[in-house]
Every structure is written in structure tokens, then in C-alpha cells.
Amino acid sequence: MSESNPLLYRVVPARPDAHCFEVMLEIPVPETETLQVSMPAWIPGSYMIRDFARNLLSLMARQGGRPVALEKLDKQTWRISGFSPQAGPVQLSYEVYAWELTVRSAHLDRNHGYYNGTSLFLCVAGAEERPCQVEILPPPGAIGAHWQVATSLARDGAPAWGFGRYRADDYADLIDHPVEMGVFDRIAFKVEGVPHWMTISGRHRADLRRLTLDLPRICAEHAALFGELPIDRYLFLTQLVGDGYGGLEHRFSTSLLANRDDLPAPAWPMAMEPDMNMEAKTDREATAMEREATPMQAPSQPSEGYRRFLGLCSHEYFHLWNVKRIRPRAFAEQGLEREVHTRLLWAFEGITSYYDDLALVRSGVIDAKAYLTLLAELITRVQRNPGRLRQSVAESSFDAWTRFYKQDENAPNAIVSYYAKGALTALALDLTIRNGTEHRKSLDDVMRALWQGYGRTGVGIGEREVEQVAAEVSGLDLTGFFDQALDSTDDLELVPLLRTVAIEMRLRPSTSAKDNGGCVERFEPTPSRPDIGVRLQPDSAEARLGVVLDGRPAQRAGLSAGDLIIAVDGLRANAANLDALISRAAGVGPIRMHAFRRDELFETEVLPEPAPADTCELRLDEEAADADRARREAWLASSVKSVNQA
After folding, report:
1. Is the overall model pTM greater than 0.70, yes or no?
2. pLDDT tens across 426-443, in order?
3. Alpha carbon separation from 421 to 379, 428, 491, 613, 618 (Å, rounded)
């Protein structure tokens, strides 16, 4: 279709109190006597059918001011007929309910608006490659008086950070740029000369200068790894909430949902740049201010929460290459109408999950001990789920739509995470290649080869081609490795691999419910403790069971997820004292438990057993051979330094 006649969309946050966007779509020159339009069923990067069409409250079609016929064909598709191709544009108008505060959907109230294109924009069949224009208008009245717009969409007349007209190359481009509107802070920095921004929506008292120091280093680390930064702009859209975590990748941006307390807190007394005297500025001026990176002394190690936030930023930024440009052939060949199955999510999410924390230590944002703590916690998470012995990581990838994204109380017993197990697979692959090539090659080289062969060319990756590229780059026969790592449920052999880079690993029983392992100076003896194999529902003062692990004492005693434990050996139980009551009663035979299942009281006997060795500890082996310690330093060394030295 002619590029001189783009599809025209208009978005109005018309009814914030009712959480409703109004959308208009104008099809300038219909070339047939019928049109078909549809809403996506899922959003790229989140592998679950979400049926965005369910949020359409109304849909009307007109031509020249007169209604034309609309017929619904299925849950997300409509046919338009009864118009004349010669009588001018066909206009569709519809209202979308937006009250889901996630990175995957749309949300609107008096404080802000946010949407992904998959939630708002109808797709015109046959016009998927036609250019699009979208006009974003402010909400009515005084609500939007101080609102701005943040999006990575190309501007087509709209002022910077303002309402107005934007453009997209085609429908795929249109839905790949989420939009935030409202009052927000923003910071700015550059990576390899490319402008980057982060907007922060939601109340906070964060040290935004700290972000301008840490984020560029992480981004530069990823760019150096791939040897190329294939963008001319990048935007982090951050929504802060009291309790939340998540991200979704896009080609030129990412949406982040984070706990407001995870952002770096300002030092006390708070040091401000000379031109950032907030007392001399109105709230609106301060909020709209753009902070540029300024020199400051290297800060201390990030807090646990801030480290988690930086890991999220790192993860989504790595997707700029891995998933958004290096992508499975299945995604390139199929649409958004139904599930698209692939066994490759272990590579696209798992490898990304490996590099997100690795980039933190390589960039110098955290030290080696902090990185090993993150790695130990990851190993612990995988070890604690019996589902790893039932489902391979390739199966987890393929079944993401129906199992990983639709988890229930039995999920820990039935599935393994392609994020977590995939990250450990990437670690094992990296160390296997390094060890097998005397550290001349690594997973870094594999990722660069994937970028050159697939990312830069846009050629989709076949289901086994990541494995083939890894073998070609390394020169190793990796058949046995991939057979075990991807297609079996065997645990990865991490202990000997980590030893090649002077890191010792052990698995021990946990000391408490909050013990997730970490990096230690030395391995200390760990006393055994009684365990019945349950996990309580989070954020509850009651001892209500959230998970009952397969084959463990609680399951053998007939306890189930959802049961409320009220007494242990005649003493009242709650979330805070359940472990202590079990420990006190254990050792002299079965212990009596009283519980409610729904509204029915029952009694059972549980025989605790020693807690399993499922908690990982890692330590830096400074007494290892010089060559092994040198390999560890090379593994954790910055890619930026490697590029500069080359």
C-alpha cells in the first residue's frame, strides 16, 4: 500500500476516572470492499494469551459520517463491510478499559496514563507493513495541565516530551513503543554517544545522580560485549509502586515496574549540584527537570534492593540485542493471534538472566563477592524446587504459555524456570567453553557470532541453531553438554566447572526460611534442623500453607496447599513461630498438627526429617593455582576493557 497514505491513530485519555482511553483509527484509502481488523492476543516478551480485545468497551465504524456494518468473527477479529472504496476514509472509534498496572498492558487514572500498543491499537489485515501515524492528546480539563509524554516513538511534529503526533514504520513498530504520560522525573546520559533517558513515575526520594553514574556503566558493558550499539536512542520507563517487580523489553525502550524503596536513597545530608536547589523551584519545575550525569566519587556497594533494580535494568537492556533483534525464527514467522511455541526461551531469557548480573560485576557496579552472592541465591532457587527433576529447561521453554505463565500451588513440584535454570545453563556453557578452549573462547564469542549472523541480518534462529553456533565458535563437541543441560532433568555439574575459575561451591541445609545462601569466607559446619517440606503463603501472619513439596513429610501426612495450621503439639501456631514449634517438638517421633482445610478442622501426625542440602554457598578460593585465579579474573573482567585493549 502507498506510503503516502499512512494509517492514522489518535489516542485520548478521555475518561481517567473511568480508566478509559478513546482511540480512533482512520484507514485513508480502503482498497477492497471489506476490511478486517483485530487485536493482538499476546504481547511480545510475555508468553501468555492475554486477549486484549476483552477490554474493548465499544467499537463503531463510519465513513463520511455514516455508520458502516461491523461483524465480529471471533474473540478478537471484526469484519467491516458496506462502505465504498471511493467514498473516502473509513474511521473506527472505540474505547479501551485500562486498569492493569503492569508492564504488559494499559493503565489510566488522574495521576498518569500508560499503555502498550498491543492493548490499544487494532491491526488492519493486509496493512501490517503500512506506515502509521499516532496523535497522542492530553486528558481533558485541568488533569493534564502539567502532564508530559515519554515514549521512544519517533516524533512527527510533537515537541520533546510532549503531546502531539508521532510516527511508526509499520504496525510491528507501532506496538513496540510503550507510552507513559503524566508528571515524572527523568535523567539523561549517553552511551557511545547515543542519548539515553530514564523516566521515573510515582512518588520517591531517590538519589537520581547515583543512577546517572551506574546505569551508563552497565549499558556500556553490554554494548562492548556485542561490539555494537544498534540504536539512536533508548528510554527506560520506570513506574514505582509500594511492592512490585517486572520488566518488558522493546527495541528502543523498556518498561520497568519497581519497588520505590529499591531505588538508591540520598545520602544524609543530601548533597545537591549547584543548579539543583530544589527549594528554589516549584514542584512542577523540579519534577520536569532533567538530570545530567555529573562527576561524583565512586559510591559504596549497592543495597540489596538497588542491586535488584540495577539487575532488572541490565536484564531488559541486554534484550535490546537478545530477543528484540536476535530472535527465534518462530517469532519472526508467526503473529500475535495465538501461542507461538519455541524451545529457545532458555537461550533468550536464560542467557539474558546470566548476563544481567554478570554485567553488574564486569562494569564495577558490584564486586566479585556480591556477584557470587547473587549466583548462590540463583542456584538455591533452582535446587529448592522438585520440578527441576520433572521438566527439562527446553520443555519449560516450549510450555511457557500454559505452565510457566499459569503457575498454581503445585508449580514448584512440576516445572522448572527457564529464566533460572536457563541462566545456570548459560553459566555452565560459558565455563565449559572457557575450560575446553583454554579460555581462548567463551559464551561472549558465541553471543557476538549470534549478533553478526542473526541480529544484524534479521534472520530468525532455528530451534537448534544456538547449539550449532556454540559448537562452531568453540570448536568443541557440545552434543553431550546440550543433551544433559537442555533435554534432561539432571542437575548441572557446576562444582567442577566453578573450580576451574577458583570458586568453591557446596550445598548445605538451610538454617531458616530466610536463608538463601550466599558468598562466604569459609565453609562452616551447618547443624541439621527438622523440616516438613512446606512454604507458607507470603505476607500473612497465619501459618497457611502456600506450597507442599513433593515427597516430603507434610505431603505424606496429608497436608495440602491452602491448609491453615493452627496448632503444633497443642500449641497455637502462626507464621512467625511455626518453624520453632516444629523444631521444639521434633526428635521424639511424629508431631501432632491441627489444621483447617476450608472450614473443616482435622488432625494429622507429621514426622519431620532433616532439612535437605539445597542451599548454595560459594567462596573465592584464593589458595587455588595462579592460573585458575587468573581465569576467574578474566571471566569477571569488563568487556569495555577488552575492547579498548584490542
Report:
1. yes
2. 999 999 999 999 999 999
3. 8, 10, 9, 18, 18
**DSSP H helical ranges for 109-207:** 117-120, 171-174
Packing angle of the helix pair 208-226, 351-362 (nearest 10 deg): 120
Distance of CA 467 to the CA centre of its chain: 24
Helix, strand or coil, per DSSP, at residue 503:
strand
3-state secondary structure of 248: strand
- Spatial neighbors of 229 by CB under 8 A, at least 6 apart, are 191, 192, 194, 223
Tally of residues, the chain? 646
The sheet carrying 112-115 orders its strands as 106-108, 112-115, 179-182, 148-151
Residue spans of beta strands (DSSP E) within 89-161: 90-97, 106-108, 112-115, 123-124, 132-136, 148-151, 154-155
Which pLDDT does position 588 carry in this prediction?
A: 82
Q: Which residues sit opposite 258 in a β-bridge?
A: 240, 245
Q: Which of 603, 537, 528 is nearest to 568 (CA)?
A: 603
Distance CA 224, CA 42 (A): 32
Residue 642: pLDDT band by 50, 70, 90 thresholds? low
**Cβ atoms within 10 Å, residue 244:** 17
Q: What digits encode the pLDDT tens for the residues 485-527?
A: 999 999 999 999 999 999 999 999 999 888 999 999 999 998 8
Distance of alpha carbon 40 from alpha carbon 119, whole angstroms: 8
